[in-house]
Amino acid sequence: MKALPHKTKQLFVFIAKLLIVGSAFYFIYIRLANSGQFDLTHLNEGLNSANAALYISLILLLTILNRFLEILKWKALATTLQPISLGQSAAQVLAAVTAAIFTPNGLGEYAAKAFYYKKEDAKQVIFLNLICNGVQMIIAAVAGLAGLIAFNALYDVIPTKLLVLILAGIFAVTALIFASRNITIKGFSLKKLGEKINELPKNVHRGNMLLALLRYGCIIHQHYLLFVLFGVTIPYPIMVAAISGIYFLGSALPNFTFIDFAVRGSVAVYFFGILGVNEWIVVLAATLQWLLNIVLPVVAGSYFVLTFKRKV
In sequence order, what are the residues at sequence separation of 6 or more whose Cβ sits closer than 8 angstroms to the Cβ of residue 135? Predict the structure, then answer.
């Protein structure tokens, strides 16, 4: 087959970039245009409340720190393949956020990062990104389950029998995965995956775990401070347990990044409704967190998508 002329390839790449950025902003626009979730009354009350400046400063600091920790995580993991600078890591992470916004469960992130490396390194990049996200998911699952159990012990949200069945199901699936680790399908097995994971230096794994823990703490406390900003005075342990449980349940449901706040927001309305929190405050907090953690990085990431140059 005759190769496409260089100019034609450049045109296709340019169109692809515009489609990624355009689609990202289109989904954001649709989400906001069709959302009646901003109650300006509660927003104004929060912004004019005592210590509002302090809470807003802390929320913005956690927003920046959340993404910065992710950039540090990716830099450490990617450097096992080839050395990259903090700026290169930031470009790859932010571009990946932009590409992931309209793909199921953010799968576009894996492809976006792979494009920054040589074709022969694509599988390794996807593997490293799986390690990066996998640790984050495990922490969210463990902390979320603990929060859900603690919250349920106080408010009996889930019937005890159902909760026991859920925990038994998780244990059974874990045991099944462990038992089938030696089964090979088309040359792939969980045992080989484990061996590949162990090939990475231990200090990289330790750093990845620590940064993932810190990032999870940023996300949870950012949500907590948004509630405090809007006058919610529920005790800290109960709030953190509820938020952790909400993140666990929200992440367990298949969704697109651009509707992530709607999925988690709907779960949050149920949980915080039990605590007597105004529904508008719950949804407003979820929407603002989505704007801070997704929309702002997408805006920044759009620049890196448009200026991206493919490695050969």
Answer: 208, 209, 212
Contact criterion met (CB below 8 Å) for 251 and 144: yes
- Among 301, 222, 232, which residue's Cα sits nearest to residue 42? 232
Say if residues 67 and 93 touch (Cβ distance below 8 Å). Answer: yes
Backbone dihedral angles phi then psi of residue 181, each to the nearest 5 degrees: -65, -25
Using alpha carbons, select from 195, 211, 213 the residue that is nearest to residue 76. Answer: 211
Angle at 84 between CA 100 and CA 120, to 5 degrees: 70
Residue of 123, 121, 120, 126 whose CA lies nearest to 108: 126
User: What is the per-residue pLDDT across 89-102, written as a single tens digit (0 to 9) for each?
Assistant: 999 999 888 888 76
In angstroms, rounded to a whole number, what is the distance separating the alpha carbons of residues 211 and 216?
9
In whole angstroms, give the CA distance from residue 58 to residue 226: 10
For residue 100, which of 175, 42, 23, 169 has the smallest C-alpha distance? 23
- Which amino acid, one-letter code, is at 246? I
Contact call for residues 232 and 73 (beta carbons, < 8 A)? no
Averaged pLDDT, 207-234: 93
